[in-house]
Write a structure and sequence with these properties.
The chain is an alpha/beta fold. It has 2 domains: 401 residues, 3-Layer(aba) Sandwich (Rossmann fold), CATH 3.40.50.12780; 124 residues, ANL, C-terminal domain (GMP Synthetase, Chain A, domain 3, 2-Layer Sandwich), CATH 3.30.300. Helices cover 31% and strands 24% of the residues. Helix 4 packs across helix 5. The protein starts with a helix and ends in a 5-residue tail after the last helix.
């Protein structure tokens, strides 16, 4: 039995002893009474009775162990031409003073604080400051529309909001203060105090009696020490993207979260104290929470905080410049980012300007990594390119490869093996029975979920049960479809609703996208199932071409259709492909396939709150109308 098999087997057969051992790597004020409390299924609890502080583990612990002078944060902002570094000592000084002014504003242990900020160091510091005093933070992506912010404010019910005067998108300044003011107008539960970090690019007008200047408060505040919280006390609430009506607030605990994230840094990402780790995401998303803020600091690594884009700030060499300049050991980003770089610089000419020989590995998540993107990145970087899969709800990977445990041979298109702690099964969507290797079905995790995963939904235990636990009793329903092959490799084929039924045959649109992506002129693509009177559903492809392609569009479409026919088979009935300028995506890089399907089927749809570029929907609508669809 190899190392992975031993560790995985132990985690499934003896989860209590496995996670108790992992928990020794965390500093506890008081040890737990129970490793796993199963008394109130499906509301499992880890390390019941244990007491700790997440901020202490992320900052103070490292200072006490001689790492105070090491860089904790490297802030790199090409949009403001700024690079700043903060040691663990400097980080503690600022975080403790921010925690101090929160206390002076009346924030106590268990209170909620909404953070509505751009990718600046103060965003990370604000999260840690809340953790330091036992407050529950809820980060809302900076620049979200006022009504969406208001919905989240109403659900989280904060008395205090931390914000900034503006964010910067490439060369455009986004004023946050008017959006925040309007959100508070719309909200029923109106916060009484707002703290604004004024940025030189745009100062916000403060409202007397409600708004405070961040710098003034921080300068005058008395530092606050870490408080002891229960392992099961909430650390944060994070609202899932695309929510309408009452949002889904994923609740993360303190104890299980710290244990699982620190374990994952060493064994999944192969990161040790002192390494430089860069998750190219945003603190508004779960990747930002887990792998910009908490996990790197828990392990004692240096985390890179990047305020920019993969292209356009200023060019497609932006990522390579950051890796080279800051000696990045591990990069974690979305396949979308790599596809954007590849589209703008298909021959990787900008890459040649930088030395990234220190890079150990590239991890991709957020959307399935298609084989074409994998091969392009792998050939270019000459390091392991590792697809791994997880969700906002789980907080850390479900399936991946293991730089610190065992590096499995990579199968392009597969996310590799289940993580220790996750008893992953493929279920028949109709019967709920476990399917044999090779058959596509619903991906589910046998309960209990491991530490670090969500423990409930904020103010909505019933929805937690109905949406995630009731569909397949005894399992967590992921909502994703996929299969496990004979070697135990897991392939994620997209959301369950991305498995379409063509004349009684259940087919994955992911496999069709995989075929389309191989066409040389295609930079990225999406395939959705649209209604068909004869066959129930048929696939419709959307193609984005690489920069500089001057090939006849009809020829491209014809050849792509033939490629899918050759690779997936005529049974797929792939007969229509549209060429568009761009695909509509969320800010975290997920393609809005469900919205595209509704447009193609002529159904009413609402623009998702998380959309990155509304013009992309106009492009889709125009192409569909030109094709005579969407009526």
């Amino acid at each position: 039995m190899d190392e992975y098999e031993k560790v995985y087997k132990e985690s499934i057969e003896n989860p209590r002893s496995f996670w108790a051992d992992a928990a020794k790597d965390i500093e506890w004020y008081e040890k737990w009474d129970q490793v796993l409390d199963e008394s109130n299924k499906p509301f499992y609890r880890w390390f019941t009775g244990g007491k700790l502080n997440t901020c202490y583990n992320a900052i103070d612990h490292h200072i006490e162990n001689g790492r105070g002078d090491q860089d904790a944060i490297i802030y790199d902002s090409p949009v403001t031409d700024t690079i700043e570094k903060y040691s663990f000592e400097e980080l503690k000084e600022r975080v403790s003073k921010i925690a101090g002014f929160l206390r002076e504003l009346g924030v106590e242990k268990g209170d909620t604080v909404v953070i509505y900020m751009p990718m600046i160091p103060e965003s990370l510091m604000a999260m840690l400051a809340c953790a330091r005093i036992g407050a529950v933070h809820s980060v809302v992506f900076g620049g979200f529309a006022s009504n969406e912010l208001a919905i989240r404010v109403d659900d989280a019910e904060p008395d205090v909001i931390l914000s900034a005067s503006c964010g910067i998108e490439r060369d455009k300044v986004i004023e946050y203060k008017p959006l925040l003011d309007e959100a508070i107008e719309l909200a029923e539960n109106k916060p009484t105090k707002c703290v604004i970090k004024q940025r030189p690019e745009c100062e916000g007008k403060l409202i007397e009696g409600r708004d405070y200047d961040w710098d003034e408060l921080e300068e005058e505040a008395d530092p606050a020490d870490c408080v002891s919280v229960d392992a099961n006390d909430p650390l944060y609430v994070l609202y899932t993207s695309g929510t309408t009506g009452k949002p889904k607030g994923v609740v993360r605990d303190n104890g299980g979260h710290a244990v699982a994230l620190k374990w994952s840094m060493r064994y999944v990402y192969g990161v040790e104290p002192g390494d430089v780790y860069w998750a190219a995401s945003d603190v508004g998303w779960v990747v930002g929470h887990s792998y910009i803020v908490y996990a790197p600091l828990l392990i004692g690594a240096t985390t890179v905080m990047y305020e920019g884009k993969p292209v356009g700030t200023p060019d497609p060499g932006a990522f390579w410049r950051v890796i080279s300049q800051h000696d990045v050991d591990v990069l974690f980003t979305a396949p979308t980012a790599i596809r954007a770089i590849k589209r703008e610089d298909p021959e990787a000419e900008y890459f040649e300007d930088y030395d990234i020989s220190g890079l150990d590995s590239l991890f991709l998540a957020g959307e399935r990594t298609d084989p074409d993107t994998y091969h392009w990145a792998s050939d270019l970087l000459q390091v392991p390119v590792i697809d791994h899969w997880w969700q906002t709800e789980t907080g850390w990977p479900i399936v991946g490869n293991f730089r610190g445990l065992k590096q499995f041979p990579i199968k392009p298109g597969s996310a590799t093996k289940p993580m220790p702690g996750y008893d992953l099964q493929i279920l028949d969507p109709q019967t709920g029975e476990e399917l044999p290797p090779g058959e596509t079905g619903v991906i589910a995790i046998k309960l209990p979920l491991p530490p670090g995963t969500f423990i409930t939904l904020w103010n909505n235990k019933e929805k937690f049960k109905q949406e995630y636990m009731d569909p397949f009793p005894g399992y967590y329903f992921t909502g994703d479809a996929g299969f496990v092959d004979e070697d135990g490799y897991v392939s994620i084929m997209g959301r369950v609703d991305n498995v379409i039924n063509v004349a009684g045959h259940r087919l994955s649109t992911g496999s069709m996208e995989e075929a389309v992506a191989k066409y040389p002129a295609v930079a990225e693509c999406a395939v959705v199932g649209i209604n068909d009177e004869l066959k129930g559903e048929v696939p419709l492809g959307f193609l984005v071409l690489k920069s500089g392609v001057d090939q006849d569009h009809e020829e491209i479409k014809s050849e792509v259709i033939q490629m899918v026919r050759d690779e997936v088979g005529p049974i797929a009935s792939f007969k229509k492909a549209l060429i568009v300028d761009k695909l509509p995506k969320t800010r975290s890089g997920k393609t809005l396939r469900g919205t595209m399907k509704k447009i193609a089927d002529g159904e009413e749809y609402s623009v998702p709150s998380t959309i990155a570029d509304e013009e992309a929907l106009d492009t889709i609508e125009g192409a569909i109308e030109e094709e005579g669809l969407g009526k």
